[in-house]
Every structure is written in structure tokens, then in C-alpha cells.
Amino acid sequence: MVNLQELAIGDINFYQFRGGPGKYFGHFSPTLRSITLSWPRGTRRQLLDFLTLFPKLENIKVSHYHGRPPAHEEPSTRRNAIRGGLRGQLVLTNFGASVGLFEDIIVAFGGMRFSSVELEYVPGMQLLLEACANTLQTLRWYPDGAFQNYKIDPVL
Questions:
Q1: In what order do the strands lie in the sheet with 116-120?
Q2: 117: CB partners within 8 A, 6+ apart
Q3: How do residues 101-143 score in pLDDT, each as one tens digit?
Q4: Element (H, E) at 145
Q5: Quick check: 149 pLDDT over 50?
Q6: Phi, psi (5° rounding) for residue 52?
Q7: Which of 36, 43, 48, 156 sits at 20 to 30 Å (Cα–Cα) from 71?
């Protein structure tokens, strides 16, 4: 698999990778552009370290992630900021890691330049939207309970 550009993984548990996930997924680094993670388990640092394995990453989809304690950790290795990535689509569904992880991703990737963002129950989304303000073309936002019937009264 020397040209893999899209990878989807369900129920990944970062704690199970002896020597880190780079040993198992690092060979996708030169070509991977899109990652989808459903129900990932691990700390914020582990998720960040996994994402930064792929310097050409453009699209990120993560659903049902709730970072495990401790709440704040430094990345396990200091890397130079990755330039040029994170310019495609970001989709976060039921994403409980919030602001701290967004800050870490912004630093690790030298900013965020997503053109499309879809957020469903994502606390702390203001920082994420501010980081993408100059490049954002499409925003889909579903706050908690968005699929219930709402009556919206216009403010005059």
C-alpha cells in the first residue's frame, strides 16, 4: 500500500500500540490525505501524535471521541509545525476533547485552513472557527439536540 490516500479506522485504541501507532501506520505518512476515526480511545496527546504522523493530511473526520485523562499533555515528541495540510474538510461528531486539543492541532499543523467544517455537538468550537475564518467556505453546525424539532423565534 504505497499510495494510500484515505484511511478509516473504527474503535482504535491508542493504548494498545506498543511503541506507538507510528510503528504500524507511519508507512502511510508520505501519501495519506484523509483520515476517519470512529470511536477512538486514548488521550489528547495520543490522538494528536497519531494525526501528526501524516504531514499531508487535508481531511479529518472524528466521531465519538472523548479524550481520556489527563486532560492536558504535551505532545510526546517536539516536531516542527507541519505546513500546508488541514485545508480540506473537518467533520467532528460528538467530540468531547474541545479547546485544548484544537490549540494543540493548530500549533502542530501551523494553523488550520479548512474550507469545509461540519460540527455536531462540539464544545469549544469558537477557537476552531476563528482559526479557519479566512478559508472557511462551508459550515454545517448541529448543536446538541439539533435533530429535535425546534421552534425558532426570529429576533426583531
A1: 6-10, 34-38, 59-65, 89-95, 116-120, 138-142
A2: 89, 90, 91, 128, 129, 132, 136, 138, 139, 140
A3: 888 888 888 888 999 999 988 887 888 889 999 999 999 988 7
A4: none
A5: no
A6: -75, -5
A7: 36
Alpha carbons 146 and 132: distance in angstroms, whole number: 23
**pLDDT, tens only, 38-67:** 999 998 889 999 999 998 999 999 999 987
Read off the DSSP letter of residue 115: S
Instruction: Let me know if residue 98 belongs to a domain.
Output: yes
How many domains are there within the chain? 1
Q: What element of type H or E holds 7?
A: strand 6-10
- Considering the domain boundaries, does residue 88 fall inside one? yes
Measure the CA angle with vertex 54, ends 51 and 57; round to 5°. Answer: 85
The owner of cell 501524516 is: 54
The secondary structure of residue 90, as a DSSP letter, is E
Q: Tell me the residue ranges of DSSP E strands in 28-146.
A: 34-38, 59-65, 89-95, 116-120, 138-142
Q: What share of the chain is helix, strand, coil (3-state, %, to 5)?
A: 25, 25, 55
What domain range is 61 assigned to? Answer: 6-142
